[in-house]
Amino acid sequence: MKPPSFWQTPEGRPHPLARALLPISKVYAARVAAKIARHRPYLAGIPVICVGNVTLGGVGKTPFTASLAHRLKRRGRSPMILMRGYGGRLKGPVRVTSTHEAAEVGDEAVMLSRDWPVIIAADRPAGARLAVEAGADVIVMDDGFQNPSLRKDLSFLVVDAAAGLGNGLVFPAGPLREAAGAAMARADALVMVGDGPVPDALGEMTAPVLRARLRAIVPETLIGQRALAFCGIGRPQKFFDDLARQGVDLVATRAFADHHPYTQNDIAQLSSAAAAEEALLVTTRKDRARLSPALCADLVEVDARFDLETETPLDLLLETVLKDRS
């Protein structure tokens, strides 16, 4: 879904359409709050670390999830990534393998499974049980911040600093999944990706604020080359800007909806346009996960890296939760 423009008006100055939708938003927010309050979460028996957000759309959760898995592995842990499998038809619980496609388990699960063990499960407790059976000693849950079915030992709320919280209102009047203050009250840390202030709607900060950057890792062989870049992610322009900033000669760009299911015709048209410009065809690692191997032969894949400004606060949080649950 493409976010409506009125979601991005400044906080405190809602668009007339947003004001008209406020009664529905209040009902929506109340239902989310009631669901969280009344649920008895399942205890997995191993630490569960949740990476979530309060807005609809991409903010950098999945790269941060991969970064956490890497840190845990360095500590001698055996992490399992648990996801819903957004965009896939399987409900799970299923351990993702190299034979799975994005249409089955979602593009993010396919992408992460190249490097990490991944389970997709609409039923998070069932997914946690499978993770324990598979030998995991810690679960990193990508998304699920508003899902109360599984007990979380450590919760990170990720916010894109450039986009902020839009108009600060709950869906459908705004982009929020729940009231911002309520979400922040359950978070153990706020992760701000990019430059920008902490949104006022989150309230007074008592939890640590981790500053981070998410940037494309451009292969050296691509620098100075003519390229047609395409992607279907939360913030496509950021990807294009990263490429240009790092020396890629962008002759054209194509932005698709987030999680867009590419067809053979899509790739044929993109390949034809790139050939006409004598350019390379470039996309993100996440987008490539949605393409069959037969359509990837001439693609240049660009990965992303998640870097924290300082690592000490995160290390302390991980040390505390792992020590308490060891």
Automatic annotation (TrEMBL):
Pathway: Glycolipid biosynthesis; lipid IV(A) biosynthesis; lipid IV(A) from (3R)-3-hydroxytetradecanoyl-[acyl-carrier-protein] and UDP-N-acetyl-alpha-D-glucosamine: step 6/6
EC numbers: 2.7.1.130
Gene Ontology MF terms in the entry: ATP binding; lipid-A 4'-kinase activity
One CC-aspect GO term: plasma membrane
UniProt key word Transmembrane: no
Keywords for this protein: ATP-binding, Kinase, Lipid A biosynthesis, Lipid biosynthesis, Lipid metabolism, Nucleotide-binding, Transferase
Keyword check for Transcription regulation: no
Catalytic reaction(s) noted: a lipid A disaccharide + ATP = a lipid IVA + ADP + H(+)
Domain of life, per lineage: Bacteria
GO biological process, one term: lipid A biosynthetic process
Chain residues that bind ATP: 55-62
PANTHER family: TETRAACYLDISACCHARIDE 4'-KINASE (PTHR42724), TETRAACYLDISACCHARIDE 4'-KINASE, MITOCHONDRIAL-RELATED (PTHR42724:SF1)
Primary role: Transfers the gamma-phosphate of ATP to the 4'-position of a tetraacyldisaccharide 1-phosphate intermediate (termed DS-1-P) to form tetraacyldisaccharide 1,4'-bis-phosphate (lipid IVA).
Family statement: Belongs to the LpxK family.
Name of protein: Tetraacyldisaccharide 4'-kinase
Species whose genome carries this gene: Parvularcula bermudensis (strain ATCC BAA-594 / HTCC2503 / KCTC 12087)
